[in-house]
Amino acid sequence: MEPGEIHALLGENGAGKSTLMNVLYGLYQPDEGEILVDGKPLKLKGPSDAIGAGIGMVHQHFMLVPVFTVTENIMLGAEQIRGGIAGFLDRRRARREVTEVSERYNLRVDPDAVIEDLPVGIQQRVEIVKALTRDVDLLILDEPTAVLTPQETEELLTVMRSLKAAGKSIVFITHKLGEVKAIADRITVIRRGKTVGTASPEASRDELAALMVGRNVRLTVDKTPATPGEPVLEVAGLVVDDDRQIRAVDGVDLTVRAGEVLGVAGVQGNGQTELIEAIMGLRPALAGTISLAGDRINGWKPKKVLRAGVGYVPEDRSVDGLIKEFTVAENLVLDIYDRPPFGAGLALKPDAIAASAKERIEQFDVRTSSAEAAVGTLSGGNQQKVIVARELSRPLKLFIAAQPTRGVDVGSIEFIHSQVIRERDIGTAVLVVSSELDEVIGLADRIAVMYRGRIIGIVGPDTPREEIGLLMAGISPDAAHDAIAAPAADKPGATTADSPGVADGSPASDAGSASEDEA
Amino acid sequence: MTNPNPQSGSPDKEPASEAQAAQNALGNTERAEVATEPDRSVAKPGPEPEPKPSLGRLFLDNLWAANTFTVTLLSLVLAIVVGAVLMIISDPDVLSTYSYITSRPSDAINSSWTLVSEAYANLFKGSIFDPEAFSGWLNGANGWQAVLAPISETLTYAAPLVFTGLSVALAFRGGLFNIGAQGQATIGVIMAALAGFLLPLPPGLHLLVAVLAGALGGAIWGFIPGILKARAGAHEVINTIMLNYVATYFLTWLIVQNGVQDPNRTDAISKAVDSSAQLPRLLGDNLRVHAGILLAVLATWAVAWLLNRSTLGFELRAVGANPDAARTAGISVTRTYILIMVFAGILAGLGGSNMVLGSTASALTPLVVAQIGFDGILVALLGRVKPWGVLLAALLFGALQAGGNRMQSYSGISLELVTVLQALIVIFIAAPALVKAIFQLRAARAARLQTSLAKGW
């Protein structure tokens, strides 16, 4: 690493990127080899050593206390104390420090805001400020864009550039090729725990992807035009609350036809999760109707919905999709264990379960040492394949896939996408929800954009990315269209106009006001 | 700059792959075997060629089993050592020899050794095998019953513990911490006893009805926290603890009521259970072992089948391991919670029936259920919440109880020491990392084990 360099670390899930960086940050101990900082070998016993050596890290999952303020979170672990032995916390000094750092690097955060009230993008900024107040020279960002909207990602890249200008080095861990090409000075590709090559950002996406998975991959989804049939899923006027009794879905109308893929795009937390849980019977619908092939399924239990021919890939596989302690074979029958041939009366049929597991492991290319291995020992991509295999192995009318490729390596993404399209082609209605815009564009025949619990627009798959991106930020279809149609020269102006407003929280409203300015 | 003995991985990190896990584990056995010698073992470098998956899996399973077995055994050893120290400290005569240990160390050592070895010998003779009784039988001095008496005692004490241990273990596998086995057993003992002396039924049927009554009582007492958990989200730990009190004091009240209390007695004791409702003795009237132990083995088999080979067990394990995923897959979590608690209650209730229909007692007294519910928690943990493990753990606890009686009468060691020993064993087992640290074993699996035991909370 050079000073003032952005070094991208690219690799599939499970390639060892995060492990490497955790070693660098002192969370894990190396078995062999050494770390050199300024030519000197470094022994790290824990994160505090790493911070002492000028290494800071922003984790994939933020390490913030939700009910603390920004200042309190930043001082956590390095509390400023005044009053000698009495040991009062010096909030004022910490607050001053936060303001100073955030101004110096143009990272606007409100030091008194409570973390849980802040949007994800700002929380991430708090993490960065936290690292910077520790006076680090090297900042590790572990998959920082996984949770961000396209606009927030753009802002993060701007922040990274300004940090680079200030002479900080950044290690940027990701598996998104576009961002790497946009920002990195140097790219190291890791595969199965080994460096397989370094590349310059000029390398093409295909080259990088091939380096990552070790073979050529298709990044676009091959598919023929859809031949939509009868409506299978019809949702009308659906209203659903989230866990905190706050309205999450606010009057959604949707139709998914047999043989088509309806993609739901949107930044996470705009009601997509609740919409799908309501369809699956996991969450009560407060108003509106949901019907499946003509039957009203409101108030059905999940089991009945599943039995009626709905396949469901939940968005969080480790929480809702799989039981990690269970074997691959058991997970493959998780929702049909009591049906013939797997169960008869009270008894399970282990032989039938094992036989079908063997078949499906082969058919869906699940890489596992055996069907009896605990599913938790598999990589993310293979875990996801287990879920997809389970859901696609019974006759379906409707297939719902939420974030089907989150945290999944490129090779598995390709496979899962092809399976989704295959299911569509045999006449199943498919509903795909994803916060990855590329995925929605690649898979969907129609794209519904969800914003604050409503479908803000339904567009075709050929709609420009930027337009969908603006829809995702809550700008109505017409305004979005205008904004894109505006002369290209105005665009840089629009992005700069964005940044000052962001401090008060909502990137969406900023983008909105920006586009209004233009209008 | 090469480390002669590189670590094969940080202990609290999950192995990334099967192969790596196998390799880690391989490292462990080598270390374990040479642990007593100076540590010169060098972890095998380079990746091992992986054996056939089935073989590798088999190897891993055996190793894993051996690993917990080793820890269990070492925990026993540690508990015995600590127990020995306690015996020495609590014996004034032996302790006084330590005041002049520098001038005559042999006194202290000899007296300590005599005390401890005799106490443990009596523990063994009282629970498993008494060589004197054996030679007495060969000489014709006593009958064969005396030879089997220790085992008979062990089995008698173990039988109810198997039931309560299974009760706690079953709930644990379903993600619930059943502290209420005591209360469920108490209601079970009440129902069994009432059926045993109030219903005039023919032999055989009477026993069956009494046993089932006990199971029903436990089921009711398990159902209450189950439905409260499922419908109202009330935590089962708190509710089962509270219901323990309710059950205990209900028993105390019930015993002195008209129609229940023995009319010939003024103290708190109920009428005796009819002989037609008593579990038959297996080895004649002189030995206490009764059919309860057979029921216990049957129950162990049934629970093992239920857990591993039934759809209900699948649901139960799924809910226990990940209720969110279970719910998403269409399993009714609330229904499963209720069922788990009902089954746990049935098992504990059967344990309670054993206490009054077997040979331990034939009438209700305030202390008729002893501590079987709470001991059941320890038995379940010691048995690694696996049915057959619970059976073995209950046998061990039964043996400690049986041997403890003899230890008390022959060596004058207080019976409470047995309770201390039981507690120590469980503490050491719950902290495998500690045991492995003491014996310098690598603690690769320790973290995982601990979390599995702590998960009920």
Structure description:
The complex is a heterodimer of chains A (519) and B (457). With 519 residues, chain A is an alpha/beta fold. Chain A folds into 3 domains: 6-213, 3-Layer(aba) Sandwich (Rossmann fold); 231-322 and 391-472, 3-Layer(aba) Sandwich (Rossmann fold), CATH 3.40.50; 486-518, no CATH class. In chain A, the strands form 6 sheets. In chain A, strands 4-7-8-1-9-10 form a 6-stranded mixed sheet, with helices on both faces. In chain A, strands 16-19-20-13-21-22 form a 6-stranded mixed sheet, sandwiched between helices. In chain A, strands 12-11-14-15 form a 4-stranded antiparallel sheet, with helices on one face. In chain A, β14 (287-292) and β15 form a beta hairpin. In chain A, α14 runs parallel beside α15. The two termini of chain A are 45 Å apart. Residues 487-519 of chain A have low confidence and may be disordered. By secondary structure, chain B is mainly alpha-helical. Chain B is 69% helix and 0% strand. The two termini of chain B are 45 Å apart. At the A-B interface, α10, α11 and β18 of A face α1, α2, α11 and α12 of B.
How is this structure best summarized?
Chain B: It comes from Micromonospora arida. The complex is a heterodimer of chains A (519) and B (457). By secondary structure, chain A is α/β, with parallel strands linked by helices.
